Amino acid sequence: MSNTHYNSFSQDWCLTECIFFKVIAAANRALAAVSVYFLNSQNKRSTKYYVVKNSKYVPLLFRRKVLQLSPGIDYPGNVKWELALALLAAWVLCYFAIFKGCKWTGKVLYFTALFPYLLLTILLIRGLTLPGAAEGLKFYLYPDFSKLGNSKIWIDAVTQIFFTYGLALGAIVALGSYNKYHNSIVKQASFICILDSSTSFFAGFIVFSFIGFMAKEQGQPVSKVAESGPGLLFRVYPSGLLQLQGTAFWSALFFFTIILIGIDSQFCTMEGFFTAIIDEWPMFLRKKYRREIFILIICIISYLIGLSTVTEGGLYVFQVFDYYGASGWVLLWLLFFECIAISWCYGLDKWFENLKDMLGYYPSAWWRFCWKYACPAVCFGVTIFTLVQYKGATLPNYTFPVWADVVGWLIAMSSMLWVPGYAIYLYCVTPGTVKEVCTVHFRHILAGAVVCSLAVVRTTKLT
């Protein structure tokens, strides 16, 4: 290693190790793949991979080379062309996967949804064979119940469940509309919940087996190594992969899995959004080539908005979007009014009659209790709990300015205010006296407002 070369960015902070970095970066908003190669400059034909004993290099590489992170959100900086091209590639893939409709998207999803399970299984087998994996799994399987008093834990859990199941985003409802009329939706709903929860639980074994290995290598407790959010994918995990033989293979396999999962989520959310919009204006958008053109326009707009997250200050912008735009309070708000619109306004008795017509039998009383009481109560309770202990968006070693939190709340309100806003609009355009509108037409007004808000929050999530 004494004769290895330095490049321009390694001189600034790698003064104690003679290393040469080669970076491969790819991103879809926050999706960036990083591989760090340690080359023997004396014999480049027989490249060697050297173990990084100091894990500080990966976080610094991620921040300074891949992101070229600015000091704060006040300094957006320039667009990173590598990340911009990767973002463009993601949207191009998304467009060609969905522009022909749900049947074409379903064929694509056979690969993007099923193939990651094979990759996850390979990673799990490798992770369980690593030294220290048992400690990581122990940390994973033995919860710390004292954390339940932290409101952030609850809002993060709600956000995770909502995104995993597609709740309050409309994607499941929109995709389900393509099923046959007499399809067993109760069985499918149960299957989705079991499969999604099992997948999350299964993936946890992979994550924490590697984290346990990293903790052992670094001589630190697992709690110090574990990190949530983008940091887990792009700082913590690469540090662990670098310790393995065949670093390039395991890094490529891991990030290819992450990209497939991200693209798969993008396909589903986009398809749900377009289904709702096209069903709202079918006479206009279902004519020849209009669907394809409309989808292309939305993808272009989404890409342009997404460019704000691949600048030098893009990580801060991404965090504001992620924390306020389509998570936590927004989804709780929309799901609360979804339940109210169906159970209390449309009427649960009428809804059960519709289900009997489709299924041939009435669903159990358990579903009635959940839809009418449990779900609205949980949404309302968690919202109040988190607002009482409210804290703004944060990043490690960085506090967002007040104006960033204000912008974040404006983004959140752009989805939330459509419920009362559209209800007021429908109230104004609905004929009849005040009493007639409030009693007879209120259920239709609220239902329309919820549908409108769902479309807005899906758009926010896509960008």
TrEMBL record:
Q: Which GO terms describe its cellular component?
A: neuron projection; plasma membrane
Keyword list (alphabetical) reads: Membrane, Metal-binding, Sodium, Symport, Transmembrane, Transmembrane helix, Transport
Which membrane topology describes this protein? Answer: Multi-pass membrane protein
Q: Tell me where it resides.
A: Membrane
Q: Which residues cross the membrane?
A: 81-99, 108-133, 153-178, 190-215, 242-263, 293-318, 330-348, 369-388, 408-428, 440-457
Pfam families, per this entry?
SNF (PF00209)
Residues reported in the UniProt entry to bind Na(+)? 264-265
Q: Where is it mostly found?
A: membrane
A Gene Ontology molecular function term for this protein is: metal ion binding
- Keyword check for Transmembrane, yes or no: yes
Keyword Metal-binding listed = yes
For this protein, the record's PANTHER family field holds: SODIUM/CHLORIDE DEPENDENT TRANSPORTER, TRANSPORTER
**What protein does this entry describe?**
Transporter
Q: What is the lineage of its organism?
A: Eukaryota, Metazoa, Ecdysozoa, Nematoda, Enoplea
